[in-house]
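Please check this:
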Amino acid sequence: MPAQRTSLRHFREAYEEIMDRVKDSIDHVSEREVSGFVELLVKEKSRRILVLGVGRSGLIGRAFAMRLMHLGFSVYVMGETITPAIGKGDLVIAISGSGKTKLAITAAEISEEVGAKVVAITSFPENQLGQMADYVVKVRGRTAIAEERDYFTRQIAGIHEPLAPLGTIFEIACQVFLDSLVPELMHRLGITEDQLKRRHATIE
């Protein structure tokens, strides 16, 4: 007897929602903030850069750090044993959708003490991380969370379960945003893809 085919309705609805919301998020990133961030990276290329985030945001940060390494930046990721102490003039890039992540806030406090600059990438620049940062890029994530717990009340009000739970939209939008910076940095720094390839790991 052939196996019954399982409906993929939730999968299809989810990827359509994710694609739409991520595009909307990137469309709303301020060009002024993007331009300022790029100029800051180019200006501080000779300084050390520390990238940090918690959970999936940390994974996005690691992916961006890898590209910065390919571009010739002296870049490190928070938590690695070979990460040196940051100092005056160094740059800390903190990724936190909520802007309340304790690790990011602690890093911002230490950065302030030693004279390092902090860039916050967050959905809520009004929260503590954004207020402490020297520079902020706002990347929108989920704009609302359904607090009504009763199923029928949610249906009547048109409130549906999120198809992209927790920080999914922010995290994917950050990945797209940061990867989109790479070609701009390549252009500003005069770096070709062949040069990136030469810096790519040969043992992995």
